[in-house]
Specification:
Distance between the termini: 39 Å
Number of helices: 1
Largest sheet: 7 strands, mixed
Strand content: over 45%
Low-confidence stretches: none
Shape: globular
Radius of gyration: 14 Å
Order of helices and strands: EEEEEEEEEHEE
């Protein structure tokens, strides 16, 4: 019953900022002990953890992306959002939102992510950075 669905613009230009949204159904994103993560996969490479927002609003970012990553939530819409600024072609990837429940911070922030640690995944949304 729990479902996650990502959405975004698809094609963006270098130096711009992309905004992605994850719509969650079946469970409130404020439900105790859930954490809501953003993960991406660059073509030909593995998964990369980007950041997470927990049920209480706590946010953690990947050190490599922290300077240009922003995660937020809209509890009234049950949405989790991601903004990635100063885009470069290497940001071209499929972007996923995923949920993990009742795991410690070291698991929430693990990079690379271990798919089996996550309870739910969205289908992913393609972001292509090109002029």
């Amino acid at each position: 019953q729990v479902q996650l669905q990502e959405s975004g613009p698809g094609l963006v230009k270098p130096s711009q900022t992309v905004s992605l949204s994850c719509t969650v159904s079946g469970v409130a994103i404020t439900t105790n002990y859930y954490a809501w993560s953003w993960i991406r996969q660059v073509p030909g490479k593995g998964l990369e953890w980007m950041g997470v927002i927990a049920y209480d609003g706590s946010i953690y970012y990947s050190p490599s992306l922290k300077s240009r990553t922003s995660i937020s939530r809209d509890t009234s819409k049950n949405h989790v959002s991601l903004q990635l600024s100063s885009l470069i072609p290497e940001d071209t990837a499929v972007y996923y939102c995923a949920a993990v429940r009742s795991r410690p911070v070291c698991v929430l922030t693990s990079d690379p992510p271990v798919p089996g640690q996550y309870n739910y995944w969205g289908q992913g949304t393609q972001v292509t950075v090109s002029s």
